Amino acid sequence: MGAGRIPAERRRRRPTKSGVVLSEELIVDRALTLVGQHGPEALSVRRLGAALGCDPSAVYRYFHHTDDLLLAIADRLIGEALDGFAPGADWVAGLREMAHRIHRSYRAHPRIAALAAYRVTRRPHEFRAVDTGIGLLRRAGFDAADAVRHYAAFVDTVLGHAALDAAHLALGARQRVADEAAWTDAYQSVPAEEYPQLSAVREQLPLMADGSFDRAIELLLSALAARAGGTGYRP
């Protein structure tokens, strides 16, 4: 099927054989549920049709293909993150809250996060996120080029950590426990003559299991604050 959004006339709300009225929102809801229960392989038109109680072809009235649906799901995660977000005058606080909101949203859907975090959705929620983030950086005094570059560094850092932490959550319980215990087990027994630096910080190595999202964001925000103060846009 061709590129672009599905024409409105093809997205008429009509009930399925089971009486369900299809909509883009309902399809995205059901897709998120399927992936959450069964993993990314569940994102198929056939399985969606079965879950919705409709002919799989009905999904194509709303989405060109499964990748089109994936982009809509990715945009939904951004929308959930930004719901109710209204940054105040403090641009650093605004970026910090934005980062934590995105991180929480992706962790809430760990089995879809790794598929969605690196995509560009070209949809309204993403437009709003980019507009908001760049606006906060322009408020800080950065010129247009630096605001865009710094926002790219900011959002890539946030999404990278979100995808990493979500992937960890998506592991089986045994794998998760084994990975977390490595810092208090395997790393504690490495020979000092082969790994002198690990030996020197042995008692602190369990900190590696805590995750680095908070520290990475604070380091990035500190660096941005240190660079801020130009003559750029200020509302």
UniProtKB/TrEMBL annotation:
Residues in the DNA-binding region annotation: 44-63
Cited Pfam families: TetR_C_1 (PF02909), TetR_N (PF00440)
SUPFAM superfamilies: Homeodomain-like, Tetracyclin repressor-like, C-terminal domain
Residue ranges of domain HTH tetR-type in the record: 21-81
Record keywords: DNA-binding, Transcription, Transcription regulation
PANTHER family referenced in this protein's UniProt entry, alphabetically: HTH-TYPE TRANSCRIPTIONAL REGULATOR RUTR, TRANSCRIPTIONAL REGULATORY PROTEIN
Identification of the protein by name: TetR/AcrR family transcriptional regulator
Species of provenance: Streptomyces solicavernae
